[in-house]
Amino acid sequence: MSQKLIVVVGGTGKQGGSVARTFLNLPTWRVRITTRNPTSQAATELANLGAEVVQADLNDAASIEKAFTNANAIFLNTDYWAVWRPLKAALDAEGKSYESASEKAYETETGQGRRAVDAAAKVPSLERFIFSPLIDVIKASGGKYPRSQHANAKAWIANYIETAHPDLAKKTSLIYLGGYNDNPSLTPRPNEATGRYMFIMPLKNTFRMPIIDPSKSTGKFVRALIEDEQPGTKLLAYDTFPTISEIVSSWSNENGKEADLIPISIQALHEKMGMTWEHLDILSTLDETGDYMAGVEGYIEPQQLKASKI
After folding, report:
1. For the chain, how many helices (H) and strands (E)?
2. pLDDT digits (tens, 9 = 90+) for 138-173
3. Is residue 72 part of a domain?
4. How far is CA 106 from each of CA 78, 79, 229, 290, rounded to the nearest angstrom?
5. Which residues form the NmrA-like domain (predicted)?
6. CA distance linking residue 24 with residue 44, whole number of Å
7. Where residue 174 sits, what CATH number does that domain have?
């Protein structure tokens, strides 16, 4: 049986690992993952499952072009935080502002995305290109909240596909993942005074937050986009889509512990809890628009997929 080739950029990460494992279980596909460290435990585990592991770096265009050779499908997810976190830690240690970390991470991620997109556009065998972006916070907020560069960088890459490579855009679908199920903001803190637990949230209790386990579910949605859906599909991918109140109730029921939703302002999160505007501008946008997909038009949800029972 003739097999097609999917190349998974960052196959050792949560999203990429899920995609790699899903396609490794499909007899019509073979899997190649790219990683900066082919000897890592995650890379070794995927190699043992049958993946081809190649060393490639999104900062090195030649290595990416080589990794994409003969690809029929490519999954791309870029990693802003790998740059931002160590830079911010170093600036914190020096007592300096974190803003330059955001600027550098934005510059790095958009450059990595541009190189990957340019390389994909050169692959004659390519049939499907899947990119994992976030909302354009600047667009969604009308320019009011410009500082969530982790989202803005991914939005820039999605726009670059459309404007710089229209032929590649015709092969492209976008997967917008819901909030990760292990996000610290979805984990309550104990209230020692009451013996209860506190969900400290700046979002209204009626706000609907899509939740996904990226390590388990990303792959099934990417498979659907590649095998079942037409290019050009924008998918909001999630496992559940509860309100904030439902998140609190669900956690309480599952853990057998009483929990409360504690409202807090965005400004208080910054001043009292030290959260950066890098994280908070996107929350301000979600709070004011009441929409997790603010500014994104024409997207579908899992129940609208042709294979809706995935």
Report:
1. 12, 12
2. 999 999 999 999 999 999 999 999 999 999 999 999
3. yes
4. 11, 10, 31, 26
5. 3-275
6. 14
7. 3.40.50.720
